[in-house]
Structures are given as structure tokens and as C-alpha cells.
């Protein structure tokens, strides 16, 4: 609304401002106004790179135009050229120091550069100019979040939302915080509210899809992110999220296609490159993985948070590559020790290649904790009968509830719910508070047709564990089993 | 400690509705009176708050915080403390939280500003361009280092380098084209074009035109044809954004190396700038740019005089545009006969204060002009930008 108004004002100024000027001075004035309007129009179409050139020219000619410098800052920030954006905003703020949004935008640019010290004064200045200004509160909250004070950040995001229910960025920022903190229930609740208020809220749908994906609601995750893509097909972030959801589901080819689609829209998309690197890593193609990371890191405009994440990812890939190479060489030479085989099995498991991981570990004649690891690899490789045999032995030896649960899960995956039920009951006899034993027992009862027993077991589970991914799943099941009763 | 500070800040930002209501009921308030909002602070600085309460006994304490750290807790008036903000110019968030003995609290916050200065070409090295005239206002040439003494806040300094300046100069020609200039434009163009012709091949200039808007008509160039085309194309229209024009000129010259000057022509007082006079005076003090201000007709002399003299430049006041040619000629001659002088400052305290400079000659009949001082800000060196 404000932008439209500004464009209109600028257009009017163009008419009135150039009426009597001719010659060089007239040309400069006319060009400056034309370029400003051109740049603002491109910015409003989210074509940031295209907006920068005309806005740079407009700002270079029209030296006291707040609009030219401010929109130049916005376009540069949109193109992730934050240092230059700060320079443009600084001039704009020299001209209009009390411009609320320009203060917030400057804070945002500093925050993207990772400098909370520089960012905070701009947000505070805006908050002082208008005490309940949601973007300013949201900015201060992000400063707290960046300085690792999540509790305070959450409180302040809440204030921003209380101040302006329609302020979309606070939903995404708070949603991101919840996702990073693993508070998935809170994330879903918040983001569902956000997309209910604004069904066309692409960024909200994006975060909601991420939350669903992490909760294991894969169908919801895919459907939600597809809706976001439909709404905003040019936004690479949505393709990245689809890629991440599919990657979480183990659908490497689909995930790869989605990350590549993100890169096609924005070749510098760091998360797209990170996703492709992860896929290459899982395939054991370390050179390709590092190539993706290095390409992303070569972008000087990369925000600090992305740079730090990519740097850490690179270090992990290099470490895994070197370890895998030395272990494979040892195995190829025929002189690999049991420890070498066990270590390589860990690498293979991290790549999602559980069958080979199980083979390697099995050949290492595992003992102690490595036997549990082998059982897990067998389970993840889909070798449920072997997993059951090993878990059953381990459970008998150690009398541990969690091992009984895993045994029950292996039996359930073979379709033997009756024996699975017994395993879960044995687990509960050892530890009545074992959460997964309760949950899986309810699942087994449901599959066996004992709806009443399943419902009461689910309710007992929910009473003991009201939060977390499983709780959300249980609520859904209960809503279907007994829609009239509140779980 | 850190958590407490963060909680305080949050409390301040959050400004709970209940506390605000209580504030209204009780007339309980706090206001930071020192430093002022948007001022710049460096070094050891006093922070002072004014407190209003129905009874002095209502006040439990005042906590002062800088950024996210509580720096002082004061339990009795006057509510103030001293904080060392260091030698680097930054924007700071300063808070004062007033606690009522019954538990409510109110807050005030001040955000200071970062100062960008360009006083030195190398650390601790102060550079001055000096103009010397005799009693009849004639420029005095052929002087040596021995003829001068430099004082910083009254303390004598040792001159390191001295020479008659003949290196290139970079200038901004800033022209008022507000509506009131209409009748004088033909002469303004003629005189401006003549001034451009006085530039040496190695000199560079840009042309800035202002009414209520400020436009760059010619980017920095040594091409006199381009400069003349620009200065002769201005048309009189609109109001006068004099300070905006000067602000733009200072900004455009910032970061460029060597001697720099602004040649300003205006026929009236500022009527429509977004930038304030104080801000321009600060720029004049902070940037090493000579300002030559020409007032045509009925102008407020004090403004141009103060701005020009602060920089070591000069102001001229004329009644008719026909006198412009003579003034331009004087400026051109002066720029060709200045002395370059530099010294290593003995100042050790980088607290942002304005250090007063005085250049004296040994001949009492001579008048010496140079910038009047600089801000004591370390890191005031701008990254050099090659021309």
C-alpha cells in the first residue's frame, strides 16, 4: 500500500518536477524520475537484480531523494548485497531519520550480515518512534534469537504478533525458531494459525511443510509445500523445502530434482546447494558434494548464518570422505581390522546405506553396544526377521524395556501383531512409563481390531506425553477413532 | 548478570501495559537527558536521567544499561553515571529503568548515532590546508614552515611536512537554482563557465544543482566542456534545499584523496531541506573539505560564514551576479596558492570531542585561515578511494 502510494507520488513528482527544465539539467531530472519509477516497478515485481541498475542511476543523480536511496537499499537487500544495502539505507536515513521501515530495513541488513550490535540500535529507534511497531519488535526478537536468548525472543515475537496479527514475517521468524529448537507442536500450531489468517501466505506454508515433514506427516508436508509452490512458483525457497521433505523421506531422485529446480530459479540459493551436496554425500560422491558447497560459499553475499552452516557441512563431508577413503583402502587391502569394518559401517549408515552397514558390522563380529547398532541397521535395511532375532536375544540378556520395544517393532513390521503386543507388554512390565511401548502397543491393538483398548492406551499415552511429534499423530488417530470425544 | 540485563532490556521494550497504566496513575517517569538522542558518544561519557515521582521515597533505584549490559545501579539522586564508550564511533542503545519501591518500573531509551569522520590520511596525522593573506587581503606566497605554528587546544604541535600545494584539487560546484535566482541566471551561467575555465587540466570537478531537489548534473571529471554544459543548464524553479545540497556534496567527496573543496553559490536561506543545519555543521567539522560559500543578494550571512570558516574556506557576499566573476577568480587564485601542512598530533585522548586548531603566523600583519579543528575519533580514516 505504502509502496503504491510512493510510486504514485513519484510519478506525480516526475510530472511536476520536470515541467520547466530543459538542457542538461532537465535531462538529468527527467531521467532520474524515469529511472526511479522503473526501479521501483521492478522491485515491486520482486525482480531485485533488474531493479538495482535503474535505482543506482536514480540515486546517483537524485542526491536528496529518500525514495531512490531507500528503494535501492531494498533492492540490494533483496539481491542479498547487504553491505551495499546498508550504505544506501544510511543515506536514506540521513534524509529521513524517523522513517520507521527504513530503520527496520537497515537493522535487517545488518542482521543478515550477522552483526547484532549494529542491527539493534535501528530496531530500538523504530520501536521508540512507534512503541508497538510489529516489525521493530520482530527485529529485536531476532537480535535476541541471534544472541541465543530464545526464551526472550519467543516472548517478543509474541508481542509483535499481538500488536499486528497480520504481520506475516513474525510468524515465519517465530516458526523458524520453533523448528530450530525442535518445538514442532508449537511450530505447527503457530503456522496453522498464520495460514488460516492468510491462506496465500507462501512463507508460512513453507515453514508449516517443514514442520509437518519433521513430524513425519509426509503427505501433509508435500501437499502443503506444493500449495506454496503453486502460489509462488518463482520462490526457490519452496523448492528447497520440497527437496528437504523428500530427502527426509529418502526419495533421493525427487529431492534432487527439487533442489535443482531451486538452483535454476536462483543459482546462488545456498540451501539448494546444501541439499544437493547432501544427496551427493549420501551417494558417496564427495567431489560433487564439495563442489556444490564451494559454489555456494563462493557467493560473497552469503548471509553469515548460511556461511557458518555450509562451512560446518563442508568440514563434515571432508572428514567423512577422508575416513571413508582410508577405511575402504584398508578393506581393499585385506588387512582391515574389525574396528575398521565397524567404523566404515557407521559411515555407510550415515549415508543411508543400511544394508552394507549391516554387512560390514556383521563381519566385524560385534560385541556390546555394536550388537544393538547391528540390530538397528538390520531393522533400517528392512531385514526385520534378523532384527527381531537379535533384539529378542539382546532383550532377554539385558532385560531392558527399550530393547523389548524394538523387538516388538521388528515383529510388527513382519505383520506379527500378536507377538509384537506381547513384546510391548513385556516392555511395560519392565518400565510402565516407557512411552514408545505404550504408543506401539496401542498401534498393535488397533491393527488387531481392538479399538476400545487401543483408544484407552492412546489416551494414557497422551496423558503422559502431551507434546512432541508422536502426540500430534496420536491426537489425529484419536480424532478419527472417537471424533465426538476430545482427546 | 547477562540474563538480568537482557530481562531489563526486554522489560523496557515490552513496556507492559500494567506498568504504563501505573505510570500514568502515579506520575512516575524517567527521561534520559544526557546524552541526547542521535548525538554521538565516545570515550568516558556522562549518562544522566531525570526522574519524576510523587515522593522521592517512591524511587527504589535507577538502573542504567548500555546495549544489553547493566552498567550502573543508582539508588539516590542525581541519577547519573559515567560510562566509557571506547574510541570507536558506534550507535549505542542506552537505557535507564526506574523502579518504584512497590515494584513497577518505567523506562527511557536513547539511541546514539555513529559519526563518520575524515580528518586524517594516516593514523594520528593531521593534515591542513592553509591560506595566508596580508592586511589588504592579498595572498601571501613563498612562505616556509618556520613561518607557522600550530596549536591543538592551545598545545603547540610539531609540523612534519610543509609545501606550497600545487597538486590536483577535487571540487564540487554546488549551484542554487531555486525560483528566486531566475533574474540572475544568465550571469550565473556566464561566471560559472568562466570559473570552470580556471581549472587546471589535472583538477576535477562535479556539478550539483539544487532547488528543493538535489541533482548531480556532472559526475567528477576534468572535462571542461562537460562541466560548462552542466553549470550553464540550470534553470530557476522551486524552493531552496541548501543543506541538502551541501550534504550531498560532502557525501560525494567523502573517501576521495587529496585536497577537496566545495564551491557553493546560493541566493537565499534554506527553506526545504530534509537535513538540518546542525548536521551540515557537523559534516563541515568532520570532513576535511574546504567550503567556499558565495551569498548572492539577501542571504543570512552567519550561516555561510560559520560553515565556510569552520572548514578553513571563506565566504563572500555580493549584491549582484555581475560580481560573481570577480569572486570566482579570487577563489581560483586562493586554491592555487595554499600551503599543505601536516603534523603528528600529541593528542592521546580519543573521546570524540572537537579539538580546536589554530594556525598562527609569525607576522602579526598576516591573517591565516585553516580548518578550525577535528573530532577526536580514532578510526576516522576513510578507506582511500583512488580517483
Task: Characterize this entry briefly.
The complex is a heterodimer of chains A (487) and B (387). Chain A is mostly helical and 487 residues long.
Description:
The complex is a heterodimer of chains A (487) and B (387). Chain A has helices at residues 2-17, 23-44, 48-61, 66-78, 82-95, 100-112, 116-129, 134-146, 150-163, 168-181, 184-197, 202-215, 218-231, 236-248, 252-265, 270-282, 286-297, 304-333, 338-350, 354-363, 369-380, 384-398, 401-413, 417-430, 435-447, 451-464, 469-481. With 487 residues, chain A is an all-alpha fold. Among the domains of chain A are: 1-97, Serine Threonine Protein Phosphatase 5, Tetratricopeptide repeat, CATH 1.25.40; 406-487, Tetratricopeptide repeat domain (Serine Threonine Protein Phosphatase 5, Tetratricopeptide repeat), CATH 1.25.40.10. Residues 1-20 of chain A have low confidence and may be disordered. By secondary structure, chain B is an alpha+beta fold. Chain B has 3 domains: 2-111, Immunoglobulin-like; 120-164 and 340-375; 169-337, von Willebrand factor, type A domain (Rossmann fold, 3-Layer(aba) Sandwich), CATH 3.40.50.410. Chain B is 23% helix and 36% strand. In chain B, the strands form 5 sheets. Chain B has a 6-stranded mixed beta sheet, sandwiched between helices. In chain B, helix 5 (242-253) packs parallel to helix 6 (277-286). The two termini of chain B are 50 Å apart. The chains are: A mainly alpha (487), B alpha+beta (387). The A-B interface holds A 17, 20-26, 28-29, 32, 60-66, 91, 94-97, 117-118, 120-122, 124-125, 127-128, 131, 137, 140, 144, 147, 149, 152, 155-156, 159 and B 3, 6-7, 10, 13-15, 38, 67-68, 90-93, 109, 111-112, 177, 208-210, 213-219, 229-230, 232-235, 237, 241, 244-245, 247-248, 251-252, 273-275, 279.
